[in-house]
Structure formats: structure tokens, C-alpha cells
Design brief:
This protein is mainly α. It has a single domain (about 30-145), classed as Fumarate reductase/succinate dehydrogenase, transmembrane subunit (3 helical TM bundles of succinate and fumarate reductases, Up-down Bundle), CATH 1.20.1300.10. It has five helices and no strands. It holds the Pfam family Sdh_cyt. InterPro entries: SQR/QFR_C/D, SuccDH_FuR_B_TM-su. Keywords: Heme, Iron, Membrane, Metal-binding, Transmembrane, Transmembrane helix.
């Protein structure tokens, strides 16, 4: 009488209910944040596709194309509040979308709690600095600064 080899080496079905304790929910409330972060990635991704492709179309296809993109082009574009807000939304969404993606990667691959904390701190500080500086540049950009040497002022600025 022989015993079947299938019985001796039976494997449990995947997701059979045996979950390692470190993967079980403990009711800490992080599930809601992670769900909102997941939803943000999907919504911001769709909005970014529209923003970026419109940005590329206006900057590279309309008019003289890539040859028209220079300091004067950007100055003229940012003279219009619509383009300032457009670029601001694109900056904020891109940085938050990318930061959230990197945060997820850090959570997945950084094993030690201290390592995760430091990596995420660097990520959050870098994201905040880039958002702050980008916002500052968009709203304080002046292509015709007062008291600048005449040879540094663009042609489209009225003479001071």
C-alpha cells in the first residue's frame, strides 16, 4: 500500500487565511489615509495628463514651435494670470503626485522604521522646498526689472 505523494506535499491555497501578524490591520486609521492617497494618485494622474499635454501643445506646436520658446515666450506667457495658475497647478500636482509615489516606494522597500522616517523627512522637505520656490518664481517673475543695466533688459521691455 503506497501513500499518495500529493497528500504528503499538499500546499495551502493562496490567501487561505494565514496572514503574518505584521500584515494584519490593527485599526490605526492608516487605511483611510492610504485609500485617499491611492485615490489622489488616480485623479491627479488624469488631471496631469490633460495639463501636461496642453502645456506641450501650446509651447511646442502652436506658433513657431520649439524655436519660439525662449525667455520672451515665458515672460509673455506668465504675464497672463491663466498661464500662471495653469503652471502653478501643474507644478503642485506633479510634485505631490511624484512625492506620494516616492513615499509609497519608501514604505515598500525601507525595512527599518528609522530609515523610513529619515527618507520620508528628506522627501517631504525637498517637495515643500520645490513647491515653495516654484510658486515664488511663478508669481514674482519680472522680465523687466527696475534699475537693471540696459544691455540685460529684453527688447520687449519698454525703456525705463
Amino acid at each position: 500500500m503506497t501513500t499518495s505523494t500529493n497528500e504528503a506535499h499538499a500546499l495551502e491555497a493562496p490567501r487561505s487565511g494565514r496572514i503574518a501578524p505584521k500584515y494584519t490591520r490593527n485599526g490605526s486609521g492608516r487605511g483611510n489615509f492610504e485609500m485617499l492617497a491611492w485615490l489622489f494618485m488616480r485623479v491627479s494622474g488624469v488631471i496631469l495628463v490633460v495639463l501636461i499635454f496642453t502645456h506641450l501643445f501650446v509651447n511646442l506646436v502652436v506658433g513657431d514651435g520649439i524655436h519660439a520658446v525662449d525667455f520672451g515666450f515665458v515672460a509673455g506667457k506668465w504675464a497672463n494670470p491663466v498661464w500662471q495658475v495653469w503652471d502653478l497647478v501643474m507644478l503642485w500636482l506633479a510634485m505631490l503626485h511624484g512625492g506620494n509615489g516616492v513615499r509609497t516606494i519608501i514604505n515598500d522597500y525601507a525595512d527599518k522604521k528609522a530609515t523610513r522616517m529619515w527618507l520620508k523627512t528628506v522627501l517631504y522637505v525637498a517637495t515643500a522646498v520645490i513647491i515653495l520656490l516654484g510658486t515664488l518664481v511663478i508669481f514674482t517673475f519680472d522680465p523687466c526689472p527696475a534699475n537693471a543695466p540696459a544691455d540685460l533688459i529684453p527688447d520687449f521691455c519698454s525703456s525705463l
